């Protein structure tokens, strides 16, 4: 009996160790992705680049590590079925461009933020949350990254900034749009927003 008991304890230790390793691996991956994205904006070699070139470099970094479609699809939610396949593809692309533009423009003229990742918490066998602190121009912000293990690996499925869920915020706006609007009208609105010089957290779809 003791023989089986010890085998059981060893198995539990191996499972726990595997979970801790997965958490640390995802924490390191997220930190390196954030650092590389900031390098694309703040490195000496990027100082002469245009905003569009910086956005392209940031996109390459992010898409090499995470699937942006995951978080965008979650934000669209049930409205996804209200669009044609061509509209779905175009909306995904336009939202990516909008998010990247907002990210780069939001840091324009500001000193490089200091991003520190904190505690990693497993919320289930296939989900985890990674806390982070961002210090930007003397202000401290708290951001929580929510990750889920999928067929394509661990993916970010939501970001909670200062207690506001990005997915919930955009889903609410998109729900409002689709109560009266169409996929074609959403595409027109996204294209219009991309023409704006300034895009920030107050920009509404």
UniProtKB/TrEMBL annotation:
Gene3D superfamilies in the cross-refs: Tgt2/MlaC
Alphabetic keyword roster: Signal
Cleaved signal peptide residues: 1-22
Pfam families, per database record: MlaC
Keyword Signal attached: yes
Keyword NAD attributed: no
Protein name per the record: ABC transporter substrate-binding protein
Species this chain originates from: Thalassobacterium sedimentorum
């Amino acid at each position: 009996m003791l023989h089986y008991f010890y085998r059981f304890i060893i198995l539990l230790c191996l499972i726990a160790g595997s979970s801790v390793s997965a958490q640390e691996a995802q924490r390191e991956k997220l930190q390196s992705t954030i650092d590389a994205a900031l390098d694309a904006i703040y490195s000496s070699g990027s100082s002469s680049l245009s905003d569009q070139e910086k956005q392209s470099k940031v996109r390459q970094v992010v898409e090499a590590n995470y699937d942006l479609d995951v978080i965008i699809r979650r934000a669209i939610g049930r409205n996804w079925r209200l669009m044609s396949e061509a509209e779905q593809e175009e909306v995904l692309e336009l939202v990516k461009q909008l998010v990247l533009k907002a990210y780069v423009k939001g840091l324009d003229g500001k000193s490089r933020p200091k991003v520190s990742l904190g505690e990693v918490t497993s919320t289930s066998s296939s989900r985890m949350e990674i806390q982070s602190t961002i210090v930007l121009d003397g202000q401290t912000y708290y951001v929580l990254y929510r990750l889920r293990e999928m067929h394509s690996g661990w993916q970010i499925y939501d970001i909670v900034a200062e207690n506001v869920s990005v997915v919930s915020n955009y889903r609410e706006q998109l729900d409002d749009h689709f109560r009266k609007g169409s996929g074609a009208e959403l595409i027109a609105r996204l294209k219009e927003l991309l023409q704006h010089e300034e895009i920030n957290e107050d920009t509404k779809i």
